[in-house]
Every structure is written in structure tokens, then in C-alpha cells.
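Progress note, sequence design subtask.
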């Protein structure tokens, strides 16, 4: 009997995911939603924009290895998190599982469209390629889709919280025309207990407080709400131009004291500034002997494919600390606390010894590394 003659069930997909993904040991890493749960999705975020015949949405999570945060928590090492927990987890490790599940579903004669979780392309001046269809500025909110699949809940910090791994997950989505048994929804505030620990620990001041702006959506009659996170501040911090979170900024732009709590920069602008800084070059000078404007951004994005300087201190690590301490999630018995030592935050440039103006004698001490030729000045 070939696969085409058998009936595909949600359980069969879950069993496969348990074997190939990180769900061994009976942890549910796959959830299923029927398409009706997307009835209230905004026009440009409906799964049928990508696959009009979609009947079910399958979401899966791959846990972020907890230990990848350690280097940033220690203030000593940043590449591990970007590589293993961010870029490669999103673009390689998790997609391998997604792709295998897609092929499994296709063996039964159904389509299985894997959704890449990137930002939508934007063609503001181009005509729609297919008349009557939306222009290619559509997107699928992968966290909302995973919530509709009953896999977890979006917490106040907008991070997705899984019942076993807590906020340490990356999400994949598949759209299929197979009619599959949906999973029950997780009730609002089951996983996010509104402890608000994420708010003060966010170095970007991006997560609103209790009475701050929020987003509300409805799925199958349930109302879910989370903080309307300031994405410009988050992106500026995450991508290294917030002095509180980036020792590299301190080193290469010592006087840049962006007031993150007041900035109104948009997410797009924050991306534009940080990524162009990473690519930018400048003539060598006594103050900055190298030619790269922001060598660390160039280095980490070239080697790790992205950059994640903040290390999600508020939205993931503070939440993880709360979830583990309160035993609100399945994986909560690690021998080491999430923050084994004091939580660090860098002081503003005006309080440091250079005052933002790097004198030659200070610079010689600061730049004692192989990527500069400061040592030759002696
Ligand atoms: S990534 Fe960092 S700046 Fe962004 S919300 Fe999380 S803790 Fe805040
Ligand atoms: S730390 Fe986690 S559980 Fe607490 S409010 Fe923030 S998202 Fe919710």
C-alpha cells in the first residue's frame, strides 16, 4: 500500500516530528489549526494569500539551546547566540525539519507549502503580478499562526511561549490542503502570567509597562493580548547601537549616546542605520586606525549571517528566568540559573573614562587587538 492510499492524520505528522525534530521524549513540537481559525486575520496576513487551497496550518517549534545565551549573559561571547540560536536555527536547523515534514505530507498527495519567516517583499510602485490577487506585500505572522495551532501563547513581550521550552523556541509553519485534526487552543494567560519581569530587563525600553499600548486579536472566540513592542528601539538594541547592551558600540562609536527610551526611530530606520554602519568604511585616523566603521557588525554578520547583540535579555532571558523559577513550563530544572551572576548593563558614554572623546593614550590601551594597528603608535 502506498502513502497515497492511506489517510494522513495530525498524529502521523507529530510522530514524524518527534523522530526528526527536537520533540523526542514525547514533547509536543507540532500543532495544527484549521483554516477557519484565521477568519479574523488581517487581509494581508491570511494563509490563503500564499496558498488559496489551504485547509490546515501546521506549526512546529525547535527549541533554542538554553546554553547559547551564556556567553552574552557572561558579557564575554556573542557569536554563539547569533549562530546557533538565531540565524542558523531559523535558516538551517529548523527548516530541515520543516522540509522533511513537507515531503512527508506530499507523499500523501497533498501540497505542503513551507513558509519562510522573513519580512515581506515590498513593491510599492509595481503592478500586481496577478490581477485580483493581493500584491506581494503579504506576510504570515508566524507567532499568531503557532498560537492558532495550539502550540503556545504570545506573551506580553510579544515573544512566543511554549508549554515545555518557554520562550526559547523558533517557529516554522506549513500550509496544506490536507484536512487535519486541529489541536485545542491554549487559553490566554496560561503561559504568560503578566509577571512583567521582561519590562525592566529589556535594555531597549521597548516592552511597554502594564498600562502601555497593547495588541488584541481573536482566535475561535478567545481574546489574546500582548504589549505593542516598540520595534525601532528593539531593533536598534538588537543590532548594536544601544550603548547599554553593546560593548562594541562603546568601542567603535564611543560618544554615541542614543537615548533609547526617547527615540522614535522606526524598525526600518533602525535596520537601515545598523546594517549600513556594518558595511560602511572610513579613512583611517588616529582616533580610529582601522577602515571599517563598525567592525563587529561586519564580522558577526559575515560569519554568523546576522547579528543579535541584545541576546533577548528582557523578552526571552527574563521570561525564561520567571518561567523556570515558577515551574510554569516543563523544562525548568536546570542546575544553573538563567542569570548566574549580576545582570549587566553598560553605563552611558558621558560617565565612562573617555567621555566619548578618545585620547591617544586611552586609545592605545583600548585597541590592543590584532584587528588594529594601534600598537604601532608607540
Ligand atoms: S530583543 Fe532585547 S531590546 Fe528587543 S524586546 Fe527583547 S530584550 Fe528588548
Ligand atoms: S516575562 Fe514572560 S510571563 Fe512575564 S509578563 Fe513578560 S512575557 Fe509574560
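Output:
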Amino acid at each position: 500500500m502506498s502513502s497515497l492510499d492511506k489517510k494522513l492524520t495530525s498524529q502521523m505528522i507529530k510522530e514524524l516530528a518527534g523522530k526528526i525534530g527536537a520533540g523526542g521524549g514525547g514533547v509536543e513540537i507540532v500543532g495544527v489549526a484549521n483554516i477557519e481559525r484565521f477568519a479574523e486575520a488581517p487581509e494581508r496576513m491570511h494563509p490563503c494569500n500564499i496558498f488559496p487551497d489551504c485547509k490546515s496550518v501546521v506549526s512546529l517549534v525547535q527549541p533554542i539551546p538554553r546554553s547559547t545565551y551564556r556567553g552574552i549573559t557572561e558579557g564575554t561571547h556573542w557569536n554563539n547566540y547569533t549562530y546557533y540560536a538565531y540565524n542558523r536555527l531559523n535558516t538551517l536547523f529548523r527548516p530541515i525539519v520543516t522540509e522533511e515534514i513537507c515531503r512527508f505530507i506530499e507523499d500523501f498527495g497533498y501540497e505542503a507549502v513551507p513558509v519562510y519567516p522573513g519580512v515581506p517583499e515590498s513593491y510599492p510602485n509595481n503592478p500586481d503580478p496577478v490581477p485580483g490577487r493581493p500584491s506581494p506585500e503579504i506576510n504570515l505572522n508566524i507567532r499568531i499562526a503557532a498560537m492558532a495551532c495550539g502550540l503556545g501563547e504570545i506573551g506580553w513581550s510579544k515573544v512566543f511561549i511554549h508549554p515545555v521550552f518557554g520562550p526559547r523556541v523558533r517557529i516554522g509553519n506549513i500550509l496544506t490542503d490536507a484536512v487535519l485534526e486541529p489541536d485545542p487552543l491554549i487559553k490566554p494567560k496560561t503561559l504568560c502570567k503578566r509577571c512583567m519581569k521582561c519590562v525592566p530587563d529589556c535594555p531597549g525600553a521597548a516592552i511597554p509597562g502594564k498600562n502601555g499600548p497593547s495588541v488584541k486579536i481573536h482566535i475561535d472566540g478567545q481574546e489574546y493580548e500582548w504589549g505593542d513592542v516598540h520595534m525601532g528601539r528593539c531593533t536598534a538594541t538588537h543590532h548594536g547601537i544601544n550603548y547599554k547592551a553593546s560593548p562594541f558600540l562603546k568601542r567603535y562609536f564611543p560618544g554615541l549616546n542614543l537615548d533609547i527610551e526617547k527615540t522614535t526611530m522606526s524598525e526600518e530606520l533602525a535596520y537601515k542605520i545598523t546594517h549600513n554602519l556594518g558595511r560602511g568604511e572610513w579613512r583611517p585616523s588616529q582616533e580610529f586606525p582601522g577602515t571599517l566603521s563598525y567592525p563587529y557588525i561586519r564580522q558577526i554578520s559575515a560569519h554568523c549571517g546576522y547579528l543579535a547583540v541584545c541576546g533577548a535579555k528582557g523578552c526571552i532571558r527574563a521570561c525564561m528566568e520567571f518561567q523556570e523559577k515558577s515551574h510554569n513550563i516543563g523544562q525548568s530544572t536546570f542546575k544553573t540559573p538563567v542569570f548566574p551572576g549580576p545582570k549587566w548593563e553598560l553605563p552611558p558614554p558621558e560617565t565612562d573614562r573617555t567621555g566619548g572623546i578618545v585620547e591617544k593614550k586611552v586609545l592605545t590601551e583600548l585597541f590592543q587587538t590584532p584587528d588594529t594597528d594601534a600598537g604601532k603608535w608607540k
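Residues 370-378 have pLDDT under 50 and may be disordered. Work on this subtask will continue into the next period as scheduled.
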